[in-house]
Design a protein that fits this description.
The complex is a heterodimer of chains A (373) and B (322). Chain A is 74% helix and 0% strand. Chain A has 15 helices and no strands. With 322 residues, chain B is an all-alpha fold. Chain B starts with a helix and ends in a 21-residue tail after the last helix. In chain B, helix 11 crosses helix 12. Chain B is globular. Chain B contains 14 helices and no strands. Classes of the chains: A mainly alpha (373), B mainly alpha (322). Chains A and B meet through helix 5, helix 6, helix 12, helix 14 and helix 15 of A and helix 3, helix 4, helix 11 and helix 14 of B.
């Protein structure tokens, strides 16, 4: 039986962890001689104070929803997919290949093709570590780390040798056809009368991200496969006894996870850069870990956490623009969130459990109540 | 390829291998005690920055080294608290430490030096310069042995010699001392160690802190010997290559030496594409060579070439039965 009520488990523990991370972040800001309150104000203003700010916040959030869902799905099968970065890189490659070599007539069809390419390439990149874990017992964390580096080497090679237009110096692909440019949500808002500046921020991929989150919810809690994945994650031996094939579940879960991470490429490559760049993922694969941890691996939690991280990213960019605080502050905050909500989870949980246990015993003094120790 | 080119290639192999070797041995201690550590990269990076920063401020590379080790130890202690005391997920803790170091180094560097996240260049005593071993100049002109001794063996920074001495030392500590026996036991079967009345927590903390010291030296080498100062993200994945080398070495010290030298050779070859072209008559693109250690590690992990069996209790927190 659980010691804590569900609301404490789902809301209180992450909230306290977040507050701890925020306090330490504030101390870090004070230590580098800046005012944390002024910094927070600037971040809030820059991230959610205007349509443009919201646009960028949601643009970043789109990335983090995909990578967060990727990590979350794998978490349910107790697989730690640390390879979101590599899978997203390959996803971007899938997008570029789909858009560079086939002349799609309209961006809607192009978007469909790009999404398919991204998902297939991301899933393929996750397949090998999954297969090796399931069949040969090689640790998925180590193999996915290795695959991140292999993806990066592969991308440098392909960009330099094949995808770079002749005569161009920097390693990036050719630009996609202009009519494949994804419409931004801000421009839609603009036509509805909101004042939105023209920019390259949140685009229709955000809607795909929301659909993906809903699809993951349906998959996990409303289908047989989702039940099998969760059962497998809960207890591998029990799942095996119930006739669930561990190889099949491991591989399928990682394929879904990789496809989700790969889809991130649609947002960055097709939506933002409109060509394949060397570092279009910018660490979003790792942020997915923080997002999944904070969102407790639930799609709704992942979406909320992703928007929070989008806010941090956009706010951090504003901070770097207007103060001498570098963007890396966001990396520190992200690290602290992962540390407190992930690794130091028990530090918050253990005293809370003791507290709830004490309260319950006080309220219902049963016969087995021991004298105060 | 002529003899001098070979010597030069091996010389840069040693330079590339040194930080890998130190980090690999660091991971060896930690993982042999049952604590997975994917935070080697972060500890190296933090040490690289604090060594450079303290060395610049005090003008002494040795004081800098202490600063670097201290920074690495702080991160090691966080990893210890998270994964030993609070029985948290060691992998997640490692990820957090890598990110913490990546962000913190730039943040502090910007605050202290205002040079866009780097330290000022180091000169003189603030660097670990190459040491000329006795007699190196005298026999430099002797054929064959002369260049071998003067170029390859002599002329490295003191940290290189420390790294190479750390190999037999690690072997001796792990396989010839009581502490080493217990440390290995705690990575295989912590319950048995606990039953014998030896502190599992104490041993694991000791291992994690030794790991911190070695990562500290590895980081110091990057910013004060290999280069003259700290630049953003200068560890550049070396912590992960060290992790790969550790798997390659099957968690053994002497194998670790050969594995890191092999990966060092790849690094050296990456900077000399002309040598490979001359050797095999084929132009091998640099990025593919850079990716080779990772590919090889995946192959080893898959058990296609020899099986790498990690310490049995690795990655799992120890819970005393109640």
């Amino acid at each position: 039986m659980d010691v804590m009520p569900k609301w404490a488990e789902v809301i209180l523990v992450p909230l306290i962890s977040l507050i701890l991370a925020a306090i330490i972040s504030a101390l870090v800001i004070i230590a580098i001689g800046e005012d944390p309150i002024a910094a927070t104000k600037l971040m809030v203003e820059g991230a959610v104070g205007s349509v443009r700010g919201w646009g960028y916040t949601l643009y970043y959030a789109t990335n983090f929803i995909f990578t967060g869902l990727a990590v979350a799905v794998a978490f349910h099968a107790r697989l730690f997919n640390i390879g979101g970065e590599g899978q997203a890189m390959l996803g971007g490659l899938g997008v570029a290949l789909a858009l560079l070599f086939i002349p799609w007539p309209h961006w809607t069809i192009g978007l469909l093709a790009a999404s398919l390419g991204a998902a297939i390439f991301g899933a393929a990149w996750a397949f090998i570590p999954a297969y090796l874990q399931a069949k040969r017992g090689s640790h998925i964390v180590i193999t996915t780390i290795m695959f991140n580096f292999i993806a990066s080497a592969l991308l440098i090679y392909l960009l330099n040798e094949f995808l770079k237009p002749v005569g161009q110096a920097d390693p990036s692909s050719a630009r996609f056809a202009p009519h494949l440019d994804l419409p931004t949500l801000n421009s839609v808002l603009g036509s509805m009368g909101f004042r939105a500046s023209k920019d390259d921020s949140v685009n229709v991929t955000f809607l795909i991200a929301l659909v993906s989150a809903s699809a993951v919810w349906v998959l996990m809690w409303r289908t047989r496969l989702g039940y099998e994945i969760r059962a497998f994650g809960h207890s591998e031996s029990a799942a095996k006894y119930a006739g669930i094939n561990p190889v099949r579940i491991t591989v399928i879960t990682m394929l879904i996870s990789g496809a989700l991470a790969g889809l991130m490429g649609v947002n960055t490559v097709m939506g933002e850069a409109e060509k394949l760049l060397l570092n279009s993922t910018e660490g979003a694969g790792f942020i997915g870990i923080a997002v999944a941890l904070m969102g407790r691996s639930h799609p709704l939690g992942v979406v909320i956490a992703a928007i929070l991280f989008g806010f941090l990213y956009q706010g951090g960019a504003e901070l770097a623009l207007w103060t001498s605080i570098p963007r890396e502050l966001i990396v520190v905050i992200q690290a602290l969130v992962i540390l407190f909500t992930g690794a130091l989870d028990n530090m918050v949980r253990m005293p809370l459990e003791r507290l709830f246990l004490a309260r319950r015993l006080r309220r219902a003094p049963g016969p087995d109540r021991k004298p105060a120790e | 390829m002529d003899y001098i080119t070979l010597i030069q290639l091996l010389d840069s192999t040693v330079r590339f291998a040194t930080p890998l070797l130190l980090a690999c041995l660091a991971g060896l201690f930690s993982e042999r005690a049952g604590i997975f550590d994917i935070g080697l990269e972060g500890k190296m990076l933090a040490a690289a920055f604090f060594t450079a920063a303290v060395a610049y401020l005090t003008g002494s590379a040795w004081v800098g080294l202490l600063g670097g080790i201290a920074a690495s130890l702080v991160l090691a202690a966080i990893h210890g608290v998270a994964s030993i005391t609070f029985r948290g997920n060691q992998l997640i803790s490692g990820v957090a430490i890598n990110l913490l170091a990546a962000g913190m180094t730039v943040l502090v560097a910007q605050d202290w030096f205002r040079q866009g996240g780097r330290t000022p260049g180091l000169t003189g005593n603030a660097r670990f310069e190459g040491i000329t071993l006795p007699g190196a100049d005298a026999i430099a002109d002797v054929p064959v042995i002369g260049p071998l001794y003067a170029e390859l063996i002599s002329g490295h920074s003191v940290l290189v010699y420390i790294a190479f001495l750390a190999v037999p030392l690690t072997w001796w500590v792990l396989f010839r001392t009581r502490f080493g026996l217990r440390l290995r036991a705690v990575g295989e079967n912590p319950a048995a160690v606990d039953t014998a009345g030896v502190s599992v927590v104490g041993l694991r903390y000791a291992a994690v802190l030794i790991c911190g010291v070695l990562c500290g030296i590895a980081g110091a080498y990057l910013s004060t010997a290999l280069q003259a100062g700290f630049v953003k993200d200068m560890s550049a994945g070396r912590g992960f290559i060290a992790l790969a080398a550790l798997i390659f070495a099957k968690w053994r010290p002497w194998y670790a030496l050969w594995a890191t030298l092999l990966f060092g050779l790849f690094g050296a070859l990456e900077t000399r594409p002309d040598v490979i072209t001359a050797l095999i008559g084929l132009k091998v693109p640099g990025p593919l060579l850079g990716g080779l250690p990772y590919v090889m590690t995946v192959i080893i992990l898959a058990g296609f070439v020899g099986k790498a069996v990690p310490p049995r209790a690795g990655g799992a927190p120890y819970v005393k039965e109640r």
